[in-house]
Amino acid sequence: MSSKKLADIPLSVLDLVPVLTEKTPADSFRNTVDLAQHVERWGYKRYWMAEHHNMAGIASSATSILIGHVARETFTIRVGSGGVMLPNHAPLIVAEQFGTLESLYPGRIDLGLGRAPGTDQLTSMALRRDLRGAVDDFPQNVEEIRQYFAPADPTARVRAVPGEGLEVPIWILGSSTYGAQLAAYLGLPYAFASHFAPASLHAALKLYKENFRPSESLQEPYALACVNVVAADTDKEAEFLATTMYMSFLNVVRGTAKKMQPPVESMDGLWDTSEKYSVLQMLQYSFIGGPTTVQEELQGFLDSTQVDEIMVNSHIYEHAARLRSYEILSQLQDHNTGR
């Protein structure tokens, strides 16, 4: 098996567009644009935002609108969805929205599709009005979107305008082996959510690569894994900053909706033993530390997965510290290549 180096593969960004304590979504959108502009200069390949609903600490609910906003304020970086939660949308609407984005920003838009609703069941019903055409229809809905992007057919009764004839890369997102199987069958690139669902990562990657069928859009399997990174100038500083991430995932475990919390000196007393175990299980693929620590741990992750691309999510409270984390990562790549 060929051994990849961190400098050999693209790095990308997943932005959940966090809403900080005492701040508003408008503040989050300004930070998102600033982060996108910085990582574009630092050489990151793509910038994805994820659809979530009814979450006080995440402002990326209207994902396609934010993609357009970020694409307008940048020049070269690919901008996309990580992902659009397909059960919440009619396939035609998705094709029209992303056909519009591709028409406005040609060659820069990615469409990542997920089969979860990205929220709780009550909110799912509020989004869709009913639960017909839900998760189980995901493969058919993906195929329907692909058909809308196919070359223009004047005889078609339903057409995506804009959309038809446009090359918008479609990615299958997954946190289990289901998405891997579908991506392999359809010959599409695959992105695994190991930043919060690590358990099936290796099984999903193996299944995807072994069962991949070449398609018109992709000849060889292409796998991306998303991880959490909290990088700082020292291990101690990174460990302090990472408490924000622990508190965010503690809220997930407890089912409580809160804005992103500032870091604390210690998590002792904030979680019990079982909560700590649950959080750390979810955060198995989180790399926290100074430049050397993060570089060694990320290289170890690459050695074990052999993914083609690493996407990075950074749950860091202060915007300047979040920028610094992504800057450190980009410098590690520069150092590796001798640039």
In the CATH hierarchy, what is the superfamily?
Luciferase-like domain
**Separation of the first and last Cα atoms:** 27 Å
The overall average pLDDT, rounded, is 93
- Quaternary assembly: single chain
Low-confidence stretches: 335-339
Number of strands: 9
Strand order of the largest sheet: 1-2-3-4-5-6-7-9
Coarse structural class: alpha/beta
The name of the CATH topology is: TIM Barrel
CATH class: Alpha Beta
Radius of gyration: 19 Å
Characterise the protein shown here.
It is a single chain. This protein is α/β, with parallel strands linked by helices. The protein has twelve helices and nine strands.
Strand and helix map with partners:
Blueprint: E1 11-15, H1 25-41, E2 46-49, H2 63-72, E3 78-85, H3 91-104, E4 109-114, H4 121-128, H5 138-148, E5 170-174, H6 177-186, E6 190-192, H7 201-211, E7 223-231, H8 235-241, H9 243-254, H10 273-282, E8 286-289, H11 291-305, E9 309-313, H12 319-337
Parallel strand pairs: 1-2, 1-9, 2-3, 3-4, 4-5, 5-6, 6-7, 7-8, 7-9
Helix pairs in contact: 1-12, 3-5, 6-7, 9-10
GO molecular function, one term: oxidoreductase activity, acting on paired donors, with incorporation or reduction of molecular oxygen
Organism: Pontibacter ummariensis
Family: To bacterial alkanal monooxygenase alpha and beta chains.
